[in-house]
Amino acid sequence: MITPGQTVGPFFGQALPYDGDNELVPPGRADAIRLHGAVYDGEGTPIPDALVEIWQADADGAVPRETGSLHRDGWTFTGWGRCQTDRTGHYSFTTVLPGPTEAGPTQAGPTQEGPGSAAPFFAVVVFARGLLDRLFTRAYLPGHPANAGDPLLASLSEEERATLVATPDATGLRFDIRLQGEGETVFLQHR
């Protein structure tokens, strides 16, 4: 029997979301911030059935090693969250600003290392219809002094860099993801 070809899914709505998946910290926590945005296709149309995951260090730059990422207990920070986009392509996480995870160039010069001087970022993974595999990118903090020395950001043109830096807004940090076309987000290869 011949059947038409199609990509697999998306089956995100039934299998992957869970209670508290987008709340890495409780919304009322004193240092909680909102990371949000929309996922767009190549024509600039919002994708209503994408899935966005973030992985991040805590505010001190420590990469969490806690087990039980699917269990939200209100105080254990696992550094991982997942959010399905709504009908307008929008996603939103409640989390904390990540700290630098490694040493980087200090004010004294590029050959002298200092603790906590590398650019902090959110690692972002996108699943969406039409994709046979996930996409990897980063969302850097706007205006962070270490951004200027980050090797990835330094390797990109100004227009490309702009696709990897979140923008502050009235409700937190906004990071829109464009899968292709004008203003396409820079995506990374992951081995």
From TrEMBL:
The keyword NADP does not apply. SUPFAM superfamilies: Aromatic compound dioxygenase. CDD domains: 3_4-PCD_alpha. Keywords: Dioxygenase, Oxidoreductase. It holds the Pfam family Dioxygenase_C. Residues 14-181 form the Intradiol ring-cleavage dioxygenases domain. NCBIfam families: protocat_alph. Belongs to the intradiol ring-cleavage dioxygenase family. PANTHER family: DIOXYGENASE, PUTATIVE (AFU_ORTHOLOGUE AFUA_2G02910)-RELATED (PTHR33711), PROTOCATECHUATE 3,4-DIOXYGENASE ALPHA CHAIN (PTHR33711:SF9). This is Protocatechuate 3,4-dioxygenase subunit alpha. It comes from Nocardioides panacihumi.
